[in-house]
């Protein structure tokens, strides 16, 4: 029987981010579990799920960084994906079963013309194989059981959708910049349908999530190798505030920082001259810094600065 120490041991307290270049073939949850084991970390989460087929940027939150996950998931995401024309699949990607075929292969000019309708704020029907809950059950569980749900369309913000390559008649390469909760599989499926054919995603790579970019990402092998040299681990783990790099900074006194950390609100009158000019006075966010230390994420509302997340 395990003793009290073994039962209560929760791993090391590590705060910060790892930008993982997720490999193909594993779930985001599997990637989190592997990093948790590698680092022996007490608390680990992720900012934005990637399908097993997909590769690329998966922000891994450690310790206090898990409080920042909602703000990371709200950030703009950049993707490259390959659409294969001629085959519809039940998962809308290469892992599913073929449900329909077509001999139609659209020309590049037709594709470019069709893309216009998929930019801006659109309505999108999520894939049947998705984590959306329907009557308390995940859509993918219902789909696997042979009863795919009829999901209603949802708003989706598409800032960029461009054709960037055409290797052959069967395939087209796209770049997409999108907001929160946009499904690339649905974009590929619906674009093909709008062109009078069918299609699915054959490859998908995420290049950025908010401030996290693929150029700064590490692989699971990189991470495992770095653990042979303990001094290199801090270089891989980025500070908690890295996730909020695009949120304006506000200098606080130690007394102000302590008040916010204790849940108190501060009058904006007392902060005049320090509030970043780009910040929306009604709902805008700021990074509260005491010296060089990030201590609180605050929200401006009704003439007050209120703590949103405390570190």
Can you give the mean pLDDT? 88
Poorly predicted ranges: 4-8
Shape: globular
CATH class annotation of the largest domain = Alpha Beta
What structural class is derived from the secondary structure elements? alpha+beta
SS strand fraction: 25-35%
Question: Helical segment tally?
Answer: 9
CATH superfamily of the largest domain: Pseudouridine synthase
Query: What share of residues is helical?
Result: 10-25%
Q: Using the CA coordinates, give the radius of gyration.
A: 22 Å
Count of folded domains: 3
* N-to-C SSE string, H for helix and E for strand: HEHEEHEEEHEEEHEEHEEHHEHEEEE
- Total strand count, please? 18
Q: Which sheet architecture does the biggest sheet show? A: 9 strands, mixed
**What's the architecture of the largest domain, going by CATH?**
2-Layer Sandwich
Distance between the termini: 37 Å
Briefly note the CATH topology name of the largest domain. Answer: Pseudouridine synthase
How would you characterize the overall build of this protein?
With 311 residues, this protein is α+β, with helices and mostly antiparallel strands. The protein folds into 3 domains: 13-74 and 212-243, Pseudouridine synthase (2-Layer Sandwich); 98-200, Pseudouridine synthase; 247-310, Archaeosine Trna-guanine Transglycosylase, Chain: A, domain 4 (Roll). It is 21% helix and 34% strand. Strands 1, 2, 3, 4, 7, 10, 11, 12 and 13 form a 9-stranded mixed β-sheet that branches. The radius of gyration is 22 Å and the shape is globular.
